Amino acid sequence: MASSAQLVKVGYSTQIAEALAIKRGLQLARDVGLLSCSIESNAQVVVNLIKLPGTPCSEVGLIIKDIKLLLEEIPNSVVDFASRTSNMAVHMLAKLGLSVETDMFWLEECPP
């Protein structure tokens, strides 16, 4: 298990912010050498864009392209939709990310 919270100083659109969070999660999984990875997001539109063939021609499409490349690098990796109420851990990490002053990472332990 691995998780992270990252300080973001720039105001992004919701789709961009959610796509960047998924990308960051996949980068963490790759960097720590996970052989499988399950990323859950409550951003159904972003998850749907990742699952569609091809890449949208838009700002979020550039991040989706990076996500798809990362998914190819990690065997048995998936990105799935999980509603906010069904996965409170994701919601709590997102709230924590609003208050952190530096990037934080947890491996084999739960965040506070």
From TrEMBL:
<dbReference type="InterPro" id="IPR044730">
    <property type="entry name" value="RNase_H-like_dom_plant"/>
</dbReference>
<feature type="domain" description="RNase H type-1">
    <location>
        <begin position="6"/>
        <end position="96"/>
    </location>
</feature>
<dbReference type="GO" id="GO:0003676">
    <property type="term" value="F:nucleic acid binding"/>
</dbReference>
<dbReference type="InterPro" id="IPR002156">
    <property type="entry name" value="RNaseH_domain"/>
</dbReference>
<protein>
    <recommendedName>
        <fullName>RNase H type-1 domain-containing protein</fullName>
    </recommendedName>
</protein>
<dbReference type="InterPro" id="IPR036397">
    <property type="entry name" value="RNaseH_sf"/>
</dbReference>
<dbReference type="InterPro" id="IPR052929">
    <property type="entry name" value="RNase_H-like_EbsB-rel"/>
</dbReference>
<dbReference type="Pfam" id="PF13456">
    <property type="entry name" value="RVT_3"/>
</dbReference>
<dbReference type="GO" id="GO:0004523">
    <property type="term" value="F:RNA-DNA hybrid ribonuclease activity"/>
</dbReference>
